[in-house]
Amino acid sequence: MITLTINNEKYQIDASSETPLLWVLRDHLNLKGSKYSCGIAACGACKVLVDGNAVPSCVLPIASVIDAKITTIEGLGTAEELHPVQKAWIKENVPQCGYCQTGQIITAVSIYDKHDNLKKDEVLSIMNSNICRCGTYDRIKKALDGLF
Amino acid sequence: MINRRDFMNLSFTAGSGLILGVNYSCIQGNTEKHEKIEIKNYSFNPFLELTNTNKATIYIPVPEIGQGPRTALAMIVCEELEIPFANVSVKQAIASTIYGDMSAAGSETIDKFYLPLREAGATAKDMLKLAAANIWNVTSKNLHCKNGYVLDTESERKLSYGELADEASKLPIPESVGLKKPQDFNLIGTKQKSPDLRDMVTGKAIYGFDASLEGMKYVSIVRHPVREAKVKSFKPERALAIPGVSQVIEVKHFKPIPYAEVLPGVAVIAKDSYTALKAKKLLEIEWDLSEIENEDEEAFQNQYQKLKSQPPEFVLRKPDISKIISDRVLEFDYKIPFWGHFCMEPMNFLASYHDDKCVLIGSNQRPNLIQDLISKIFKLPLENVIVETTLGGGGFGRRLAVDYALEALIISKEVGHPVKTLWTREENTLQDYFRSLSYHNFRIGIKNNQIHSWFHHIMTKPIAGGPRYEVQGAADIPFNIENIAIGYTPLKTNIRIGSWRSVSHSYNVFVVNNVITEVALGLGLDPFRYYLELLGNENSKTIKLPLRGSRGTVECNLDRLRNVLVKAAELSGWNDQNGKNSALGIACTYFKKSYAAHVAEVIMKNNKVRLTKITSVLDCGKVVNPLGVRAQMEGSISDAIAVTLKSNITIQDGQPQELNFDAHDITRIQDMPELQLHIIDSNENPSGAGEPPFPSVPPAIANAVFTLTNKKIRTLPIQI
Ligand code: FES
Ligand code: FES
């Protein structure tokens, strides 16, 4: 049994220690907002926040995040009040198919919540780790413009 | 074609609370409690239900893969029904012949459903009006509908649709209905956001990958990278020894139709995804490779060299050769590579075969085909095959093939419980239906400093036998050229091919537009002005081709085509070009009833070519949802950057080589240039927007690169 802290709750996980966090979230905990797309940390669809950093969960063994604070897309904001990044995404109507947007939003949240005062091109170079096959980039840029 | 009244009658089951669809992503938006009141549903037609609590539900027949039918189609119903868009919930219809062709294909959704959906809304509105008239004992002529109410302006009475639903649903369906005049539209043409937006940004939206059924297990399948390989034998023991693995079975090759080819392999069935993925690595499989051909790029090239020296197998347009006497002939040879779909959500399907009843759940582009095919293969009545369409993480033509749905059902039948298949990204590429590799040979005859003859020989692997889906964008060029000859010869390859955003336009429009710019510049002409000259002065042109059905008679409205071209030139500042270090490239095309033109701007910086701006102009008739159309224009540009500047699929030893995003990178946010989008204001009937804005982007980029560097571009991606 491995204990993980996800969205401020503790979970006992019955899975081998090398299991990637993505599959534990999806199949064990029914937290299906994190998506599988490449499985090799190349697209960002599966990103979660680990102690505030956006990391691909598809290659992240659960053994490596035992002591970490994990936040998934389901854990952003509250029922009454969405996270400012989610609000910006709604304002700009960012998603098309929507499948990559969890990863996009998690990455943007990791930047936003750190208050690092990054320059625009620094923000974009971090966002470059996420792929959107539908090409929603122009609207992502607009959403980011409202945030940074 | 069923007539409108029959259509409206088909599922007229007032008060039955008939369930026509599935409600994946709107569950959250729909949880308002009506304590004390019993909610009753009234179905007015296959598209529309009203409740006594004044809620409307609209059933969307066309799969949502990011192209926006759940927004646009719902808007069309709301417009005629006179109900606020925010008041409706949207459900995905399950597969049914009631809707006719439900497929998300050919950018035809709006074209296909515009009228039926307006009539669906208008019919219900008339019935609600009549119900109010009966209650008030007045004639319905003096009543008006607005915001979900029937109003009697004279007496200032009003009744909500909810209050009238029961009464209205008992009335006969009117023989004919009047539709609103486009100038009275108050919803169509306004910017509306997706009903799934909130679920998408909170992780609640349900895609195929996320769907589940009681008792389901997860399946991962090992197949050979080459399609013709067969399983000779396999040892399941080591995989079965992994806790959580319940079965290992062989999947046999099965190809009822080309678009549903189940490839041979060995499937691991396990309690969760990771166990299946882990265990499959332990399978020991011996493959029969006797039928494998070790195809590679060199073999394709040799095939091309041979074919181009022979006359085309099919002739699509033929001039009178005796008249062709040119001053000189320019020859162009292009190779446009295979492309994969790389949908963000890899293929997967949830299927259950139990007691001669099938349930199939997942993202797809063709619900009817899945239902029909499975009913035929397993000899089950259609109603025993329930196909639920979830949101899809992209489609781009890949999900027009239904191999992965059939595969899941075959496995479920064999193991006796519901299964969810999951394909890895690499498998998704290996088992793709690629856009075909194509070769093009042009011989352009020049006389009096203009194009006098145009010979274009196209070679691709055809989707269905001969030239049918392979020549659009080339054989139907509407140019004012005296002698046009178009030929087609099939390429032979074992690589599996299919439809990819805009199908043959994706390669033909590229080569055609690249030839025009190169020839124009070679003749010392301005490519934009020369293009206009090629488009002549006629208002429209009809091109006859020896192809069946609508493909045999192609209408091009030249006014509209010239208009988008001129607009793109004007917006991009074509006439004010002066930079030594920058250049513009222009291209245009028509795709069915839509027209698009693009101008790309590139600059030279530190000895590297950079794409800095794209101007995009689209005329797709009356626009239903400008936000949706813009999204398609943006997506087209993003797609175009990927295939023009970043990636392709190559074949070695019969195997696709670029399988994941490490070797096959696609457009990322930093690759996106500045965009300038313009949608033509039009009252023509709405036409497609998903594919039409794509084909002219790659040649606009290539033409800009050529203009800047003077390097001829003969294949993609361009190395810049
Ligand atoms: S699925 Fe993890 S980065 Fe692509
Ligand atoms: S919205 Fe479809 S992949 Fe990004």
How would you portray this structure in words?
Chain B: This is Xanthine dehydrogenase family protein molybdopterin-binding subunit. Chain B: Residues 202-291 form the Aldehyde oxidase/xanthine dehydrogenase a/b hammerhead domain. Chain B: GO terms for molecular function: oxidoreductase activity. Chain B: InterPro entries: Ald_Oxase/Xan_DH_a/b (IPR000674), AldOxase/xan_DH_MoCoBD1 (IPR008274), AldOxase/xan_DH_MoCoBD2 (IPR046867), AldOxase/xan_DH_Mopterin-bd_sf (IPR037165), N-heterocyclic_Hydroxylase (IPR052516), OxRdtase_Mopterin-bd_su_IorB (IPR012368). The complex is a heterodimer of chains A (148) and B (720). With 148 residues, chain A is α+β, with helices and mostly antiparallel strands. Chain A is built from 5 helices and 5 strands, in the order E-E-H-E-E-E-H-H-H-H. A 5-stranded mixed beta sheet of chain A has the order 2-1-5-3-4, with helices on both faces. The mean pLDDT of chain A is 97. With 720 residues, chain B is α+β, with helices and mostly antiparallel strands. Chain B has 3 domains: 4-196, Aldehyde oxidase/xanthine dehydrogenase, molybdopterin binding domain (Aldehyde Oxidoreductase, domain 4); 208-290 and 347-422, Aldehyde oxidase/xanthine dehydrogenase, molybdopterin binding domain (Aldehyde Oxidoreductase, domain 4, 2-Layer Sandwich), CATH 3.30.365.10; 311-328 and 332-336 and 434-709, Aldehyde Oxidoreductase, domain 4 (2-Layer Sandwich), CATH 3.30.365.10. Chain B contains 16 helices and 30 strands. In chain B, the strands form 8 sheets. A 7-stranded mixed beta sheet of chain B has the order 11-12-9-19-16-17-18, with helices on both faces. Chain B has a 5-stranded mixed beta sheet with strand order 1-5-4-3-2. In chain B, a hairpin with a 2-residue loop joins strand 16 and strand 17. Chains A and B meet through helix 1, helix 2, helix 3, helix 4 and helix 5 of A and helix 5, helix 7 and helix 15 of B. Bound molecules: FE2/S2 (inorganic) cluster (2 copies). One FE2/S2 (inorganic) cluster sits between chains A (95-101, 132-134, 136) and B (66, 344, 394). One FE2/S2 (inorganic) cluster binds at residues 36-39, 41-46, 56, 58 of chain A.
